[in-house]
């Protein structure tokens, strides 16, 4: 029953002074109202005649707005007057065009269209909640409402990472073209891969003259070089406990995803093959670089639902997976944190196997709080102890870094906002040196 | 418009909320004004109406607006003996020899056990009750029931009821403000009324006059219309006047002449032949001292004895039956509201919260552990090692420089005392927290002095 039934009964109470027998009046009026409520309930449109379906966007970039439309079809022979609540998880930022309080009317055989605008506040999969339909009677004194009727159509909106480091892409691509030799007019050309033979012109490096080829021809020929193509790049995202640490405003994982996306976009343009793993204690996501045109889209889709987990990362698993899948020499970029405990006990034992086969780069983010503790002048006793602890953490980090360097690993350790361009620069440098 | 149960949304739409609020205001403001007007009227009326239980209400010695001093003056002017009594028993005794008039302006204050005795006065006496309630009427056994009650006292002719008035005093007084509470005969009874039921006379052995309005007797109204003539006519005449001026609710009667059995009919229980016996009851007026406990026990027995009578719980009688029925129905309506609100429009949706770890959590935790363990030695060691690691490259010294050379170079660079610098860089372990803090500050200052602005990051 609704507030109208209560109001009816309350209004009826005002007539009680006029009744000869007031208590009889109470019984009569209560019975009458309950009868009306029962009648209204019986006349309400049945819920089993309703079917709900959804159409609309499946993905949206973080910060954008998606629209998912709910279609409520009334297959019964009665007019449906209903309040509909289409619930989403709070972080989906759902704003229904028809507020749940409004009573909408659907003729028999008609379909109601209920668009919901979603402005998600977080990356990942944002599922729809429970659909609730409250079918009111013609007098709106009573309603039918039952959990699971009609069946909630499942829908999940995948919120893609924002990819803020996109703004670095044009600059990195320009540098890539320089390395590629497209814009180089002089010099030996960058790269180590033999490209073609052409006639010598004045200004070419005499060291690149191919004497044997020149002997066969009447002309002097020079070799041209180009950077290696079809190299392999493997991005490994550590989603373990160290990735949950909030650096600045976002978790380390989000920074790492951003950097991985920039690296992938750059490598895909450079003609390299990109694979991606995300793992903590188990493998969370795998993307292998076939089908290059849609690679970035597939990658974004794969990393979008990744969330940090409070578990210790199993580097044994990661190394095994990389070694099993990548037979050829590749560039393995491991996005993790330079933490003595996690890397020293997890990664260092398996690193020799990995580094023997592949070129390994470890990309990590600084914690600005740590730096702040060491440079701030101590004002209290807590600051003195905190400075000591921070220096010790930094010393441990340096020890880990030198241990990694002994295995020939390149370590990129930068503040969070510089991680993506720095990793891209490292990749371009290695590519220009032909060390892939 | 219903207000459904809605989970908290991150943002509520501001636009659709505005029109209903304005519409609600359009409805609420006139309704609120009306309610305010009604409440103000009710409060003013309640303040204006005299309260019979007030001290000084219709008292012959009270000169206030609701007092009766002017009436007493007028009666004395007519030669009537006015005797003021503040105790029911004393008043009954004062009526004793010969005919008298007993004036009870506030019958509510008379104890229920003594109500029956009021109508049992010496022959030829008259009892005047002002605005008695149903309880008082039943208690005295009068064949009269209260009828309708007016909002304010009305002025009418004595014969306004359509039948001639049986009281010559009223006829003589003419128009008077006597209609406030109307009275009617109980079913089968024969009583005659004046002023359209505002004044009723019961011609028993003791003539009982019931008047529903206090206006004719009150100081502020006695000069209006025929009020003075009516009041002096009712209370005056050849009889003596005993004015029962109770200061508050009367205590239960005590003494040998009284038995707590008020259920008996009027005029048969308390023979005034008991009067002499009762006379020594108040005479030995040590009552209040030792009568406290007895009083209470009497009260209890009274309540038990009254169990079968119509006023077992006075609250039931205080309101008409429809009021209780109305309360019941409103409670049922409230139950419906509860049932309506209890059904929510779908369950709340849980948010899968991400795990968050604050930055530098382990470092700060280790700092707290250092402090709790008072690990000043290791902390100082770490700080000194870090300071040396920063200083040596800046001074272009190899890492294995002897401590004395380092101190000398740093002192030369900063211009400080070499011994002080040596103490700072390679001194003894601090033994107190203050020493550690001083050490940390000293190393920080040293580092800032050696730090060259062009170097960038001081680490």
From TrEMBL, chain A:
Residues annotated as domain DUF58: 197-373
Domain of life of the source: Bacteria
Entries under InterPro entries matching the protein: DUF58 (IPR002881)
Pfam families the record matches: DUF58 (PF01882)
Record protein name field: DUF58 domain-containing protein
From TrEMBL, chain B:
Residue ranges of domain DUF4350 in the record: 65-235
Sequence ranges of Gly residues compositional bias: 264-291
Protein name: DUF4350 domain-containing protein
Keyword annotations: Membrane, Transmembrane, Transmembrane helix
Spans annotated as Disordered: 1-23, 246-309
GTP-binding among keywords: no
Bias kind Pro residues: ranges: 1-19
Basic and acidic residues bias (residue ranges): 292-306
Chain ranges passing through the membrane: 321-340
Annotated Pfam families: DUF4350
Record organism: Micromonospora solifontis
